[in-house]
Backbone:
């Protein structure tokens, strides 16, 4: 005969497992891809980050194609990209600052963006 476990320890273990499955854990790129979609980044940058979103053609300054590492004005590292997300692209750019994102969220989005980068033809940038 099996006995049903309902001890406080079993309940806590079950709740912790549920939290992990719900997104409390995972790769930064995966969390970043989800945040990118939720926050509307694809409207300008496109679903795949190629700078071809539905609003891209209406902007005076075209959105960045994240695959092209030579096109980054403020650096193409995860740290540099996270800073650009939080601070915007400055007076010469069209991207607004996303200061409501936490540093971790901006870092996760930046991790996904870095995963889209392709090495430039002919060697390092």
Residues:
């Amino acid at each position: 005969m099996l006995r049903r476990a309902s001890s406080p320890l079993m309940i806590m273990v079950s709740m912790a497992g549920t939290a992990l499955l719900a997104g409390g854990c995972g790769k930064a790129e995966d969390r970043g891809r989800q945040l990118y979609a939720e926050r509307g980044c694809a409207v300008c940058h496109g679903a795949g980050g190629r700078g071809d979103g539905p609003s891209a053609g209406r902007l005076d300054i075209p959105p960045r194609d994240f695959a092209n590492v030579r096109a980054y004005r403020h650096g193409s590292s995860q740290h540099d990209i996270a800073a650009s997300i939080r601070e915007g692209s400055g007076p010469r750019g069209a991207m607004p600052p996303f200061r409501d994102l936490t540093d971790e969220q901006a870092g996760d989005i930046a991790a996904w963006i870095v995963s889209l980068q392709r090495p430039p033809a002919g060697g390092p940038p």
